[in-house]
Amino acid sequence: MSPATTRPIYVIVYRSRLFPAHWSLWIPRKLDKDIGKVIHVNGSAASGFEREFRRDFNLTTDISQSYSLVFLADVDNRYIVDDFKLPDQEGDDIEAQTGDDSEVAIDDIERVALALPPPKKSLRSSYTTQVVKGRAQLLNCQSWLRELVVSLVKNGIVPGTAVAAMDGAPEN
Fold first, then answer.
1. CA distances from 144 to 104, 120, 127, 136, 147 (A)
2. Of 31, 42, 72, 169, which sits with the fewest C-beta atoms within 10 Å of its C-beta?
3. Phi, psi of 60, rounded to the nearest 5 degrees
4. Per-residue pLDDT tens over the stretch 102-128
5. Rounded CA gap, 57 and 77, in Å?
6. Longest Cα pair distance anywhere in the chain, in angstroms?
7. Helix, strand, coil percent values for the chain (each to nearest 5)
8. In this structure, what are the phi and psi dihedrals at residue 87, rounded to the nearest 5 degrees?
């Protein structure tokens, strides 16, 4: 694939000394690399997470904390939609809801993300009277994003090398 038919996708890593780093998928637009789409889940292991698509995200003005980008892969442009229009019932284009509408997929990457439920509450209360055996598996934005990338590989959207790149991203 040539650079004209592909574009890079990244993980945005917001590092923290005390907590696991927050990970988001970053898909820059073709014509403006500072504007693009963020796909991630927000929440906590104590309360659960919600999926979020942030379209028209400005990497230079919408982030107030320090971050780093981890390159995942070059993706064929046919899997990514930049202009946010959906056809109405008559086949005419209508403007899709943009911003944080995470229930309407406008491209193949978003469709795969919609198929993955966000992590539910996975932190156990110390005040419970139930006997729970085994160690709790804490799910968070990192586990969800890794699952998304694995699903994108299974769907032929990104190469398998993206999983190895994600595994090298800072976790804190």
1. 19, 11, 27, 16, 5
2. 31
3. -90, -25
4. 688 999 999 999 999 999 886 655 555
5. 18
6. 59
7. 20, 30, 50
8. -75, 140
